[in-house]
Amino acid sequence: MAAALRALAVLLWVAAAYPVVFRARPLQALAANWGTRALHPLPGDITVRLLRDNGFDKVKLFEPDPNALRALGHSGIQVMLGLPNEVLASVAASVNAAEQWVIQNVSTYVSKYGVDIRYVAVGNEPFLKSYKGKFEAATLPAVQNVQAALVKAGLARQVHVTVPINADVYESGDGRPSSGDFRPDIAGLMVSLVRFLLDSGGVLTINIYPFLSLDADPNFPVDYAYFPSPGAPPSQASVQDGGVLYTNAFDANYDTLIAALEKHGLGTIPVVVGEIGWPTDGDKNANVANAQRFNQGLFDRIVAGKGTPRRPRMPDVYVFALLDEDNKSVDPGNFERHWGVFNYDGSPKYPLRLANGRAIVPAKGVRYLSKQWCVLRPDASATNPAIAGAVGYACEYSDCTSLGAGSSCGNLDARANVSYAFNQFFQAANQQKAACNFNNLSVITTTDPSQGTCRFKIMIDTGRHELTGKSPSAAPRVALASSSSSWSAVLLLALVGLTTLVAW
Ligand SMILES: *[C@@H]1O[C@H](CO)[C@@H](O)[C@H](O)[C@H]1NC(C)=O
Ligand SMILES: *[C@@H]1O[C@H](CO)[C@@H](O)[C@H](O)[C@H]1NC(C)=O
Ligand SMILES: *[C@@H]1O[C@H](CO)[C@@H](O)[C@H](O)[C@H]1NC(C)=O
Ligand SMILES: *[C@@H]1O[C@H](CO)[C@@H](O)[C@H](O)[C@H]1NC(C)=O
Q: What is the residue range of the signal peptide feature (predicted)?
């Protein structure tokens, strides 16, 4: 049922969207990951224009998101389309399942919507150690079946297969890139996989995260995580490898993989960087200054086309990520929802020079909900015993990852802290009045409670908002509006739960 309701929402959305076609040539070959795990996703047409306006002509999707794919139709933007890990087993087990996947998720968008799909990324980091081998057996057969399905669909010349691999599939015993080799438990599989990719005209995709290296190891040399600024002396931690000095983690990491590939006679496979970036919040190392430093260094390298010592030409590099996603799992850490170069609404987080020295520009045409926030009542006591439950509840259904120590809202006093949580819930619930009624502890205000680095957000009006009407009598129609997609079903659930909370 959720799928049918979602389809309905898509129909409504498509009917409401005006056709926007961008045909101008891109400024430069920049590439980005467009994740869609947001409670209020930036509308597809606005996102596509944001990409174009900033010189991105390649995009990577983690799944065949219909809104994103339709918006990419006739945009001139090339697409790497993810086949999620969850479908690896079925696609590996049956050629027919692979064919169906390709027909519905690739052929349709290519022929019917004019989407320029160039790659199917089969799985996402399937050999990650923490998966404990769960996807190992299925990955290569899935790649083979998808390739066969692409051939059968007549798409094999345009669309190629790849697998995005986590950097933990290779290692170097002595820290020098030239000593790189595959993780022993996965070496045989990697060789077979890469050989197949080579034979079928595919590429290998690698995700590299100096941020995670820095964050995991208190002794990791900070400078080495970043690209050296021009003219600056190399980091103390630079690695001498024969005649080559490695001055940063990216170069060393990438070349460790290249050395591993060369060791197995696979040195000719193109290696794309599928994810690389720096988050701005939710962790002590995640802030605007660090992200700007890393990403500016990265974009300078991309624009200059300067690769690594072993691969002097910079490959395609998909920055992670385009936008913040406030509904991503926080298993890796609170920073996981803050990787965007842009905020959730397509506004830049910090200045960046992109292609041709042009400054980053914001999304255009974004519509917001009303200028109002939900806060702790001024006359409510901060020691009211109901507050803890209310905050816990608000944060369960909305994003409170900016409240942690060292994060952008980590310095709020107790009252403002509660207000932040209330407001996040209220915004997630499309500012419906019933969502600002925490046991009579909250009140709606039109005064922006933002302070210092802590921004009290106003959510995007994703269009669904119209369904609730903007009249003061919107509340009774909440249930009706909320049934229009699985997305608002969560909020409906939340609101039902809220009633329970209030009663209790
Ligand atoms: C299209 O892709 C989605 C996401 O992987 C999947 O759930 C769906 O089953 C696919 N369609 C077909 C016909 O396989
Ligand atoms: C603010 O809220 C968060 C999440 O509820 C909590 O972990 C933190 O301890 C709070 N800080 C203060 C100062 O109340
Ligand atoms: C809510 O609280 C305010 C003051 O804190 C009080 O005046 C009002 O009567 C309360 N309303 C309900 C329904 O309890
Ligand atoms: C948010 O994430 C949860 C957990 O993954 C999921 O069940 C829910 O459908 C997501 N909501 C939206 C709007 O994507």
A: 1-17
